[in-house]
Amino acid sequence: MAKVELNALAGDAASRFPLGRIHSIETMGTVDGPGIRLVVFCQGCPMRCAYCHNPDTWAAGADAGTPASVEHILELFESNRAFYRSGGITVSGGEPLLQPDFVGALFTAAHDSPHGRIHTCLDTSGIAFDPAAPERFDALLGACDLVLLDIKHADPAVHRELTGRSAARILAFGDELARRGIPVVIRHVVVPGYTDSVEECERLGRLIAPWRNVVGLEMLPYHTMGVVKYERLGMPYRLADVPAMDKARIPELRQAVLRGMKAARSGA
Questions:
Q1: 199 Cβ partners below 8 Å, 6+ apart?
Q2: Beta-carbon neighbour count of residue 262 at 10 Å?
Q3: What are phi and psi of 179, to 5 degrees?
Q4: Smallest Cα–Cα separation from 238: which of 153, 124, 156, 161?
Q5: Contact, 115 vs 152, CB < 8 A?
Q6: Apex 218 CA angle, 137 and 255, nearest 5
Q7: Contact at 8 Å (CB) between 118 and 143?
Q8: In this structure, are residues 213 and 183 in contact, taking their beta carbons and an 8 Å threshold?
Q9: Tens-digit pLDDT profile for residues 175-190
Q10: How far apart, in whole angstroms, are the C-alpha atoms of residue 259 and residue 268?
């Protein structure tokens, strides 16, 4: 992992695109879409996930994060284009859908690069999607090649307990992606005592079964590496007594999700 000094990428008033508010940039992302990628982490998130390992990305607004321009981000990519030849640009968070104009401008410019089209990927929970105003996301989704969609929990009540928010907008976003036919990889963090039962995983499979644009499934074992960040920030960590997930159980739970999808699609 390599981080960029953000002061070198600070947005300037001369930019012809909307500026973004970003938390950080990683120059060698290997788990954020296909290939090696430049990963832009947006600042701001409306959810408060109990297992979030980046609570420093939560704060939103004009004073949060660092301003960055589309031009500077593309310059950074182009300076290492050969390195990213099998990858592209991923925008993550925080929650990137809080800044649809910026992300849309970045993705459109990436597709229109005079040096060759750049593959674009959105890593999101979908929580900031507004189903009452889907047109706000037209530019972003119109230039998005792949979405990594993080589904927190299949049960609405437990979802709210884990995140502090309803899952309604997330599911509406999933429906919108399916309507547009944008390829989606479902991500699901497997947390002991919360999302690690066969029943919950089967229910997750049934939940995502209607989305025929799903092209992949990633079951991410919960880890405790974020605890130290909470300690440093002086914040309580809600899952302090929860152990890291046993990775040996991941294949079984992944099969449970796939089994639920298959059952729902067959009408069982």
A1: none
A2: 13
A3: -60, -40
A4: 161
A5: no
A6: 130
A7: no
A8: yes
A9: 999 999 999 999 999 9
A10: 11
Query: Token digits for 253?
Result: 């739970």
Which residue's structure tokens are 């907008």? 169
Residue identified by tokens 């919950």 is 200
3-state helix/strand/coil string of 157-194: HHHHHHHCCCCHHHHHHHHHHHHHCCCEEEEEEECCCC
Q: Which two tokens stand for residue 126?
A: 């979908």
Q: What is the pLDDT of residues 56-74, one digit of tens each?
A: 999 998 889 999 999 999 9
Q: Cis before residue 94, ω within 30 degrees of 0?
A: yes
Task: Quote the pTM value.
Answer: 0.94
- What's the distance, CA 246 to chain centroid? 23
Contacts of 195 (CB under 8 A, 6+ apart): 152, 153, 188, 189, 201
d(C-alpha 52, C-alpha 181), whole Å: 29
Q: What is the DSSP letter of 46?
A: S
Per the listing, tokens 């070198």 go with 8
pLDDT, one tens digit per residue, over 72-88 is: 999 999 999 999 999 99
Nearest to 191 by CA among 226, 165, 167: 226
DSSP H stretches of helix in the chain: 70-78, 100-111, 138-142, 156-163, 168-180, 198-208, 227-233, 250-266
CA distance 204 to 39: 28
Maximum Cα–Cα distance for the chain, whole Å?
Answer: 58
- Give the Cα separation of 163 and 113 in Å (integer): 37
Return the exposure string of 203-228: e unless at least 16 CB atoms fall within 10 Å of the residue's CB, then b: bbbbbbbebeebeebebebbeeebee
- Number of helices (H), then strands (E), belonging to the chain: the values are 8, 8
